[in-house]
Amino acid sequence: MHGGEEHGVNPPSRVNPPLQRLRPFERALRRSPLGDGLGVAEVAYRCQGWNGERADAAVDAEEALTELVAQVGPGTPIVLLGHSMGGRAALRIGGHASVAGVVALAPWCPPGEAVAQLADHRLLIVHSDHDRVTPAAESLDFAARARVAGAQVARCVIPRSDHAMVRRAVTWHRLTTLLTGALLGGWPFPDPVAKSLARSGAGIEGLDLRLPLWAD
């Protein structure tokens, strides 16, 4: 699920740069050991914006998820991957019974955003500490509140990157592939992530992980 605007009722452009920004993530997933067993689906937004209480991106995402479950069957594990506004949409619908987990990249998490729907679900957030569009502090607050609400949460920080995930792009792609594959059961989570997912209650332990995974 790609990003968008806070407000905007026009449909996304044909070029749709926010969607193109996620293409390298798709390629990285397809090149991974998950291989041919992985299916990738996109959400076609009706408009560019979230648009307040209309929450258009979340509505479109939920409709797409319902259609996908009907196609693949309710027993097929699904990971929701979203960036920015798409991350907010993924988090909003992440409590669906067929969702194995959510990977939210630089998600838009405004203060007070709902978390109750994520109880008993796995949530992985990846954010840069230099994001100037969606503040990393807000995703940290969201993660902490979601954990209190009963979600299994880990949050990884990519230092010195940006909202567009251009700086240190390879790290974004590899970390996203690692987390997505672990949610699907393809391999274990890194130990710090697994420990964070096992935590419960108040506190931010495991919600500011700076993993020494790769150098670009």
UniProtKB/TrEMBL annotation:
Region feature Disordered, mapped onto this chain: 1-20
Record SUPFAM superfamilies: alpha/beta-Hydrolases (SSF53474)
Annotated keywords: Hydrolase
Segments traversing the membrane: none
GO molecular function, one term: hydrolase activity
Hydrolase as UniProt keyword: yes
Keyword Nucleotide-binding tagged: no
All residue ranges annotated as the AB hydrolase-1 domain in the record: 36-188
Pfam short name (any one): Abhydrolase_6
This protein's name: Alpha/beta hydrolase
